[in-house]
Amino acid sequence: MYYIGIDLGGTNIAVGLVDEEGKIIKKDSTPTRTEREYPEIVKDMAMLSLKVIKDAGVDLKDVKSIGIGSPGTPDEKNGILVYANNLRFYNVPLRAEMQKYIDLPVYIGNDANVAALAESVAGAAKGLQNSVTITLGTGVGGGVVINGKVYSGFNSAASEPGHMTIVVDGEQCTCGRKGCWEAYASATALIRETRKAAKEHPESLVNKLVDGDLSKIDAKTAFDASRQGDKIGQQLVDQYIKYLAEGLANMVNLFMPEVIVIGGGVCKEGEYLLAPLRKMVRERVYTQEIPLPDIKVAQMGNDAGIVGAAMLGKD
Ligand code: BMX
Ligand code: ZN
User: Fold this and answer.
1) Model pTM score
2) Which GO terms describe its cellular component (predicted)?
C-alpha cells in the first residue's frame, strides 16, 4: 500500500506519495499563499495529492490514507487544526474539507511530531524505540517517540518543548510567556541576537558578511563568522549552543531517549554545532554516571514532514 503525506507549511505545501518503508515515490509542491481562506488552501492540498498519485502511476485504491503535518495544535481525533497562528488557521476542519475531494482516511499531526516519526521510521533514529527530535527553525519544535509511538498527550497538543521556560522573565515568546526555549534556541532567536551584536559591533565580520545590510543576516551568519575566527561570531555561537544545551539537558533528564535528533535549518551546521553541543549537554544532565543519549543530525531533511505525515496512517 501507499500513503499520501502532506507537509503544510507557512511558505509551501509539499505533497508526497510514500511506500510502506517510508520512501517517497513521487512528490510535488505549491506555494501555500496564506493570505487565502482555508477552503482554497485545502483544495490545493487535495488537487496536488491527486496529481502526485496520477504522476506516480498508482491507482487511488492502492492508497491507504492521507496524513497532514502542520505547525500548531492538531485535534488528532476529530481531524481539526485547532490553532496555527502562522497559517491564520483556527479550528479548521482539515479532515472534513479534504474528504470533500478524496474519500480516504485523513490523519493530522504537529509538524515536529511527524518529523520525529519520520526520523524514527526511516531516519537518524531508525530502529530505536525511544528518541527525541528537536527542530530548530522559525520556532523550536519537538517530537517525543516512546516505545515506537509519538507521544502527544490526551488532547494531542503535547510535546511543545519550545515553550518550556529556560529563563524566568526572559525574552518575550510568541506564545505569550517569557523566557521560552524557543525565544533563545530557534533560528529566529539566533538571527535576532546576530542583528543586535552587528549593531553594537559594526567592525565585526558579522557586518562584513552582509555588506552592512542587517536585513541580510540569517541563521548562518554567526556560524560563518565564527568559523572564520571572528570574536563576535564565536560569542554568538557559544551563547546559542549554551541555550540549546540547557533545553536539551532538560529533555534528556525527562525522557532519556537513546538518541536526540536535531533537525531544522540550523542542523546544517553539522559537527561544528554538535561537537560542543554534546559536551555542554553532558555537563548539564543531572548525572554523568550512566550512558547518555547520542545527539545526531536529522537525516530526512526537507522530506521529514512528508514522510512523517504519511506514516500517521500506518498501523
Ligand atoms: C512553535 C509551534 C509548534 C511548532 C514549532 C516549530 C505554532 C504555530 N508553532 O513552537 O507547534 O512545532 O513552532 O515550528 O504554534 P516551525 O515553524 O519552526 O517549523
Ligand atoms: Zn513560548
Assistant:
1) 0.91
2) cytoplasm
β-sheet bridge partners, residue 145: 131, 150
Q: Is the distance from CB of 289 to CB of 282 less than 8 angstroms?
A: no
Complete edge-to-edge strand list for the sheet that includes strand 89-92: 73-75, 80-84, 89-92
The 10s digit of each residue's pLDDT in 193-252 is 999 999 999 999 999 999 999 999 999 999 999 999 999 999 999 999 999 999 999 999
Ligand at shortest distance from the CA of 178:
2
Asked if residue 237 has its Cβ within 6 Å of ligand 1, the reply is: no
Comparing CA positions, the residue from 102, 105, 149 lying closest to residue 125 is 149
Question: Is the pLDDT confidence value at 127 over 80?
Answer: yes
Closest listed ligand to the CA of 112: 1
Q: Rounded CA gap, 95 and 109, in Å? A: 11
Interval 40-54 mean pLDDT: 98
Domains and CATH numbers, the chain: 2-123+302-311 (3.30.420.40), 131-298 (3.30.420.40)
* Cα gap 105→87, rounded to integer Å: 23
Shortest-distance Cα residue to atom 9 of ligand 1: 72
